Automatic annotation (TrEMBL):
GO molecular function, one term: nucleic acid binding
Any one Pfam family match given in the protein's UniProt record, by short name: PrmC_N
Keywords: Methyltransferase, S-adenosyl-L-methionine, Transferase
GO terms of biological process kind: methylation
Residues of the Methyltransferase domain: 116-200
Superkingdom of origin organism: Bacteria
Limits of the Release factor glutamine methyltransferase N-terminal domain: 5-75
Similarity field: Belongs to the protein N5-glutamine methyltransferase family. PrmC subfamily.
Name this protein carries in UniProt: Release factor glutamine methyltransferase
InterPro entries per UniProt: DNA_methylase_N6_adenine_CS, HemK-like, Methyltranfer_dom, N5-glutamine_MTase, PrmC_N, RF_methyltr_PrmC, SAM-dependent_MTases_sf
Organism: Iocasia fonsfrigidae
Role noted for this protein: Methylates the class 1 translation termination release factors RF1/PrfA and RF2/PrfB on the glutamine residue of the universally conserved GGQ motif.
Binding positions (substrate): N192, P193, P194, Y195
EC number: 2.1.1.297
Amino acid sequence: MNIKEILTATIDFFKKHKIPDSRLDAEVLLAHLLDIERIQLYVKYDLPLEPQEVAAYRELVRKRAERVPVAYLTGEKEFMSLPLVVNKNVLIPRPETELLVEYVIDYCQDKGIDGPNIVDVGTGSGAIAVSLAHYLPAARVLGIDLSAEALAVARLNIDKLGYTGRVKVIKGNLLKPLLKMEKDNVDIIVSNPPYIPRNELGNLSPEVRQEPWMALDGGKDGLDYYRQLIKQAKAVLVRGGIIVLEIAYNQGKSVVALFDDDWEDIKVKKDYAGSERLITAALV
Ligand code: GLN
């Protein structure tokens, strides 16, 4: 079998299994297996594959047909143009979340904040933490996560991209590890917390349902973590420090209502698709 034949057969197979991006997925998996760029598949269209390559590809294809997300099969996902390691213990970084990172980068540049202390709550793969360190060359970032398995992935990414000096991670529940400390000097808190209302978890796509529930389940109304975080943040942020949170498209109003008079400049920002995606506020 050559590349052309196996791709054609796989795309058909994926279509039968109603895999949404059948061609893209077939190509990404084959390029990953052969360790070449996707475009090279077309350059080498007539290249015959080794039997063990065919066997290994079939195994990936079978798993994809069972709705395992492509990123879990390749073990990688690009975020903010950085190649990140992922596995089933972490939420796969979403393109929408780049808005949060871009917001923080712009904020620091606009305000001339040079070396901010940033805390990323629920860091997961470390996508937000590492990309902030990458694009803010003097920033120091602390990632917190309750999952030891997720922190292992975050550490891999920090290490692989060379940020062990400026990005640290610790295990803990939201900001609790910092609440015990004396006086804090955190300038920016960021988080993409779990925010899906519990009764909507069942409606998620088969792919998303293979991601860690603890990264998705936001409690009864999806707002559990915002309630706790916004309260805890007051004890951790410097005066004038900001919190920047990802939200679901329909949560803007409810999350705005969680900020009391200790906060100002409360803003909801839309993503490129026009959905509310981000909320930010400054501590008075
Ligand atoms: N954006 C994720 C989704 O689409 C949800 C992530 C979260 O709960 N923070 O499933």
